[in-house]
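Hi Y.,

Following your request, here is the sequence exactly as I used it, all 114 residues.
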Amino acid sequence: MNYADLEIHQGADIVFRLELINDDKTAKDLTNLTARAYIKKTYATSDSDATAFVCSFPEPRTDGYLDLTLDGTVSDDMRKGMYYYDVFLFNNDSDSEKILEGRVDLKPSATSII
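Below is the corresponding structure, written out as tokens. Let me know if you'd prefer a different format.
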């Protein structure tokens, strides 16, 4: 499993592209997999109270890319500060693998565009 800190500015549309690779440095085949990623204020925050990234797989899935998207209207409704996130992959058998975790620093926007 990997760890990375992220920085997001309130109100900004953001996409984080993850490149998943196997131990032999080849692209991980993401065919037939789904993904979930949540941002939580604390580790104890329930999934139902968490903010979800939209997870999508650019084609072809055999290239190993996973996009995590957060719309600016979603981050604008969140309070500034430190959050935690994690990303899971799921196969058809409901087996899960945590592939990434870390902190999200949600920074306030200095200006707002009307």
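The longest strand covers residues 96-107.

Thanks again,
Q.
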